[in-house]
C-alpha cells in the first residue's frame, strides 16, 4: 500500500501498476486503499483507460469500489477529455455501492470544464446544493472556467459574484477565468 501510494504521489503510474502486479503474482489480495492509489496514479499519469480498467477489476479482486475509487476514475476520465464517461461513472456510482459526494461531483464538473461543456457544468453545479450541500470554491471555479472556455462571460461573471453568497470564496482561478471570459 505504501509503495503504490508513494508511486502515485510521484506520478509513477507504470511503477504503481508494476507493484500491484507483483502483489497479485505473490497472491496478495489488494484492498480498496491499494486499488485507489493505483487508480489515482493512473489518473495523474493521464491513463484514463487503465484507471477505468482497475476500477472495473476491483470486484474480481475482492476490493469494493468506494467514493475514492470512483472519484479518482472520474478525474482520470476528465483529464483524458472524456467527460461523457466521467458523467456516466458519476451516475453509475450507486450501482457500485458508492454514494456520490461533493468530491465526485467536483471531479465531474472539472471533467466538463476541460472540454468547455459549460451547460453540463452549470447543471451539475445547480444540483450540488440539493444533493451534496453548498457548492465549494472548487466546484464554482470549475464551472466558471467551463463558462470561460465556452466564451460565456455573461454566465461567468454573475457566478463569480454569487460565490460569496454561496459561501464559496472566489479564488484567483475563478476570478482569472471570469476576466478571461470577457
UniProtKB/TrEMBL annotation:
Keyword Repeat: yes
Keyword line: Repeat
PROSITE patterns: PPR (PS51375)
PPR repeats (start-end): 66-100
Signal peptide residues on this chain, from the entry's feature table: none
Short name of one Pfam family: PPR_3
Database matches in PANTHER family: OS03G0856100 PROTEIN, OS12G0638900 PROTEIN
Protein name: Pentatricopeptide repeat-containing protein, chloroplastic
Source organism phylogeny: Eukaryota, Sar, Alveolata, Dinophyceae, Gonyaulacales
